[in-house]
Amino acid sequence: MNGEIFNANPTVYASKRSARKSKFEAGQSLWIDEQYQPELSSESEVEPIDEDEIFDLIRFIADPEHPNSLEELRVVSAEQIKIGDNHIMVEFTPTVPHCGMSTLIGLSIRVRLMRSLPQRFKVDIRVKPGSHQSELAVNKQLNDKERVAAALENAALLETLEKCLEPVGPNSL
Question: pTM of the entire structure?
Fold first, then answer.
């Protein structure tokens, strides 16, 4: 990147704890219940996915300019994720209206979801309406297959993207 910082002093928020409870927290056994023998599912059975699961995949993506996660900067939230029949729409909010890293942030979200979700899902990544001065251009870049493929062929951009995908926050080592 060119070294210019678009938001030198962002507001950082505390990370929220996941809304979903683990089996242990819910008072369920962590071990397989021998009396419960689930039927083997057929491969055609589709496992549902919800907004919290998608949020858990993207919340700890690192901001390209700061040592914080997208969640800590309130760039992403579970409320900005919509799920329909095999369609996921993720909206994100840049920290400033002139953020030059918006395309990289959106690309990071897209790549994390492409690597994590089954291919049956169509993913749309969008800037929150009214939150960026080049909203239409950024949205067009993030949802154009050819532009995304070309970006992922750029070695320098791919290196920066991989750094963003390294988790930051409470789940990082």
Answer: 0.76
